[in-house]
Write a structure and sequence with these properties.
Layout: E1 8-17, H1 20-34, E2 37-42, H2 49-65, H3 73-82, H4 87-90, E3 98-107, H5 114-121, E4 125-126, H6 135-144, H7 149-155, H8 160-170
Antiparallel strand pairs: 1-3, 1-4, 2-3
């Protein structure tokens, strides 16, 4: 599953989920069918595309070095996205029943496997902007990642996504 050149693709949009179990089961079916890793994230917790990709890269690196905490790449990716080594805390970043803004992170969707991207797009109403950091995400993200007013004053509000990336990077130090 992990190769020298891992490809990470993020597809985002909206979905109305009646059963999280059924939605996750469908993602697992697609993942197993194509031999790739897929993680579904509540996009309201993401501070942009860089956040999702950086976390996936950190998870891949942890597995390659044998420094992973989780048993699978999906959960390791979720841990890095959440900036924590605590699975219980990371699970709040997952999808929920009802209306969701979702980011589907696909690791290793090789170009010859374009079917997987098509199948993932069928699960959501695609909106590439769902992952973007916006003011409507500010409160949730600053609370979740414990970003203080002092940090925001020092760095500037436009740097909140960078402060989130810093939290993701610091996850390695808490192992």
């Amino acid at each position: 599953m992990l190769t020298e050149e891992n490809i990470i693709q993020v597809i985002c949009g909206d979905a109305s989920i009646t059963s999280t179990e059924d939605f996750i089961h469908r993602i697992k079916q697609i993942s197993e069918k194509h031999g790739i890793t897929i993680q579904a994230i509540d996009a309201d917790f993401l501070a942009g595309r860089k956040h999702a990709i950086f976390a996936a890269e950190k998870a891949i690196r942890a597995f390659k070095k044998g420094e992973n905490i989780a048993k699978n790449l999906e959960m390791e990716t979720l841990l890095y996205i959440a900036g924590t080594r605590q699975i219980e805390k990371a699970l709040q970043f997952g999808i929920k029943r009802g209306k969701n803004k979702i980011a589907l992170i696909a690791i290793n969707p090789q170009t010859r496997k374009t079917d997987v991207i098509k199948e993932l797009r069928e699960l959501i109403s695609e909106d590439p902007r769902a992952i973007d950091y916006t003011n409507s995400k500010k409160e949730k993200i600053t609370q979740t990642f414990n970003i203080t007013h002092q940090e925001i004053e020092a760095a500037g509000e436009e740097k909140i996504p960078d402060l989130v990336l810093e939290r993701v990077a610091l996850t390695d130090l808490t192992k």
